[in-house]
Design a protein that fits this description.
With about 150 residues, the chain is mainly beta. It is about 10% helix and about 35% strand.
């Protein structure tokens, strides 16, 4: 597993080839399993990172001050504590997981990270990416604290 963070700007620059500038380094570190790449999309006041393998997104992370969280309702909600999480279930199976990390700074103030709805064989990699996301001031969501279905 490799870590992407402020010191790995070259890895993220691949996602913006031809954009005319190098992206800002992410305000978090993330561990990617072998074979994964990062694609970056910049907005006017936010940045989104997509963690992909074979051109297919497994997870993503938004850094900004106005995330859509929880995704199910589109409602913005201020988290209590260092993180919040939601999970979408189909019976006992996790279909999608979202976490919201609170940063102790003005911008970006929040990181919204998620897994996409994947086949069971790919879900473990997406969950590993999600639980590896952390910052100096917020250790993220430990795998032992993830909500379960059923």
């Amino acid at each position: 597993m490799r870590l992407i963070g402020a010191l790995a700007l070259g890895v993220l620059a691949v996602g913006l080839a031809g954009a005319g500038h190098a992206p800002e380094p992410p305000p978090f570190a993330v561990g990617l399993p072998p074979g994964f790449t990062t694609r970056v999309s910049e907005g006017p006041d936010f940045t989104v990172w997509y963690f992909e393998k074979g051109g297919k997104a497994f997870a993503g992370a938004y850094a900004g001050n106005f995330p859509q969280f929880p995704v199910k309702t589109g409602a913005d909600r201020e988290p209590v504590g260092p993180y919040q999480q939601t999970v979408v279930c189909a019976g006992s199976e996790v279909k999608r997981r979202d976490i919201l990390l609170v940063l102790k700074q003005d911008f970006p103030r929040l990181i919204h990270a998620w897994t996409v709805d994947l086949p069971a064989a790919d879900r473990a990699s997406a969950e590993a990416i999600l639980t590896s996301i952390h910052t100096a001031g917020n250790p993220g969501v430990p795998a032992s604290a993830l909500q379960r279905c059923g």
